[in-house]
TrEMBL record:
Cofactor mode of binding and number, as noted: Binds 1 potassium ion per subunit.
NCBIfam families found in the cross-reference section: yjeF_cterm, yjeF_nterm
Protein's UniProt name: Bifunctional NAD(P)H-hydrate repair enzyme
GO biological process entries: metabolite repair; nicotinamide nucleotide metabolic process
Signal sequence residues: none
Keywords from the named record: ATP-binding, Isomerase, Lyase, Metal-binding, Multifunctional enzyme, NAD, NADP, Nucleotide-binding, Potassium
Transmembrane segments: none
Similarity comment text for this entry: Belongs to the NnrE/AIBP family. In the C-terminal section; belongs to the NnrD/CARKD family.
Taxonomic placement: Bacteria, Pseudomonadati, Bacteroidota, Cytophagia, Cytophagales
EC number from the UniProt entry: 4.2.1.136, 5.1.99.6
GO terms, molecular function: ADP-dependent NAD(P)H-hydrate dehydratase activity; ATP binding; metal ion binding; NAD(P)HX epimerase activity
Domain YjeF N-terminal: 9-215
């Protein structure tokens, strides 16, 4: 799915109106009907609940007027509150004229705010994609009042006060919604941790926006759904053999962190690599052979850390990092790998920390390498803390462009930046996956997909990110959030990948 800017969203509305020979009022009614249906069928409003519909002066407010009218007609207890404004949008004015006699909107002011009980539902239709500056005056006062009320808040299209794709100044008034109902496509703001408290759970309501126009709108950021990835993982041909799916080499583990090597190895096996060889320090031999008997184990001469790079000739992809440690000798191995590798690389954990501590190594990164930092590792990699989540995305793009690599930023909606600067956000996963070893599993899985001979770097990365989160989602009913372990994710990699097969 594309993540459109507010200007592109407006253009899409206009193009839909032209292409479908409809009117902006009719489109507004579709949007408002979708919100009304969600409130009735998903939130299961009951007739006793007080519903406060708060409307701003633009089309977001117009949506709110239609929702209020719908609910009032259906017999619900609706209170309608309007912001004072010098100008209203034509569609707002039109909808205001359609209000039934028993539903008069009352104008609020900073010292005349509605009484909202904690058991009430607030429909926030103050501002949507047309927000152009921070809220102040009556709007800011009402937003703070709503936030303090303890009521359930459902935001129409956007939580009011939040920008769709840019950071707002600190201390601005922004609605803290329980649910945000967005039309057709999500907004970039929904995907960033800093906005989680405003957006709440977000849902997409289809309103029949023109698919051809969406298709023709150029964007450089995407929210990647299962529908878009399904079929992208080639089905295994009947006469395939283990050589068909590549031989992966993993360099991982150090004293006390051999489990990371085990998890990444298991994930690489479950990710479908034809063969997996894992290089571990000598002390890891028994551990690895017992816990991952399907993998071959290549021990380093050193007991506790990796000090020598094996011959790379047999391998289709190399992964390095999980539990690796940052010993000087290990750094030399990393350097030698970067200088000599002719096959795809996946770099994680301590390999990334070494790249951060010795930035000259970054100049050696072969193009199309895949790096998988979490935010702290990413900060070490770029050597500068991000001002906010938007700035971090800029840094991610810059890094991918500068190194010509694919760089992941792990989190709730893991982001991937491609060398051309395009951003892809993953749609799967759950908070139970925020647990030790989960990243090692991702590395192993991505390594398997990079060893696959028929996947582009981008497709391999997107499939891996998706399947990793999906495996966590499939494990969740069996484990619960707290009980979800990295090894549970491994167990469900197979079923998650099966869903993506052509
Ligand atoms: N996206 C769709 O498919 C559809 C969207 N709809 C709804 O329309 C809004 C966008 O409406 P628009 O009129 O462009 O913007 P807003 O209602 O968000 O507000 C604009 C209004 O407010 C003024 N303004 C902006 N910022 C401030 C501020 N900080 N303080 C005071 N006033 C402000 C601005 O000048 C305008 O006058 C979208 O979100 C959807 O909810 C359609 O209904 C259907 C299709
Ligand atoms: K809103």
């Amino acid at each position: 799915m594309k993540l459109l800017s507010p200007a592109q969203t407006r253009a899409l509305d206009q193009a839909t109106i032209r292409a479908q020979y409809t009117t902006s009022t009719a489109l507004m009614e579709r949007a408002a009907d979708a919100v009304t249906n969600w409130l009735l069928n998903e939130l299961l409003l009951d007739y006793d609940t007080e519903i406060h519909v708060c409307c701003g002066p633009g089309n977001n407010g117009g949506d709110g007027l239609v929702v209020a009218r719908n609910l009032h007609r259906a017999g619900y207890r609706v209170h309608l509150w309007l912001l004072p404004a010098a100008r209203h949008s034509p569609d707002f004015t039109h909808q205001q004229q359609q209000l039934p006699a028993g539903l008069a909107g009352q104008q609020i002011s900073p010292n005349q705010l509605p009484a909202i009980a904690a058991g009430a539902v607030v429909v926030d239709a103050l501002f949507g994609t047309g927000l152009s500056r921070p809220l102040e005056g009556a709007a800011a006062a009402l937003v703070r009042h709503i936030n303090d009320s303890g009521a359930m808040v459902v935001a129409v299209d956007m939580p009011s006060g939040l920008y769709a794709d840019a950071p707002q100044p600190a201390d601005c008034a922004v609605v803290r919604a329980d649910f945000t109902l967005s039309f057709e496509l999500p907004k970039l703001a929904f995907l960033l941790p800093q906005n989680a408290g405003f957006v709440g759970d977000w849902r997409l309501l289809p309103i029949g926006l023109d698919q051809e126009v969406i298709h023709n709108t150029a964007v450089d950021r995407f929210f990647v759904t299962a529908d878009e990835l399904r079929g992208q993982l080639p089905k295994r041909p009947k006469f395939s053999h283990k050589g068909t799916f590549g031989h992966a080499l993993l360099l991982a583990g150090s004293k006390g962190k051999m489990g990371a090597a085990v998890l990444a190895t298991q994930a690489c096996l479950c990710g479908g690599a034809g063969l997996v060889t894992t290089r571990v320090p000598a002390a890891g031999y028994d551990i690895l052979q017992i816990s991952a008997p399907e993998a071959m184990c290549l021990t380093d001469p050193d007991t506790d850390c990796i000090t020598e790079l094996p011959d790379l000739a047999p391998y289709d992809a190399v992964g390095i990092g999980p539990g690796l440690g940052q010993h000087d000798d290990t750094r030399m191995v990393l350097r030698q790998l970067l200088e000599t590798a002719q096959v795809p690389l996946v770099l994680d954990a301590d390999a990334l920390n070494l790249l951060g501590a010795y930035p000259d190594l970054q100049n050696l990164l072969p193009p199309n390498s895949l790096l998988t930092p979490h935010p702290k590792e990413f900060e070490r990699l770029v050597g500068e803390p991000a001002r906010d989540d938007y700035h971090r995305l800029d840094q991610l793009r810059d890094f991918a462009g500068r190194t010509r690599c694919y760089c992941v930023l792990k989190g709730a909606y893991t982001a991937l930046a491609a060398p051309d600067g395009t951003l892809y956000f993953n749609s799967t996963g759950n908070p139970g996956m925020a647990t030790g070893g989960s990243g090692d599993v991702l590395t192993g899985l991505l390594l398997a997909l990079r060893a696959h001979r028929h996947l582009s770097p981008l497709t391999a990365a997107l499939l891996g990110l998706h399947a990793h989160g999906r495996a966590g989602d499939l494990a969740l009913p069996h484990t619960g959030h707290a009980g979800l372990l990295a090894s549970d994710i491994v167990r469900f990699i197979g079923p998650a990948l099966e869903e993506l097969m052509g």
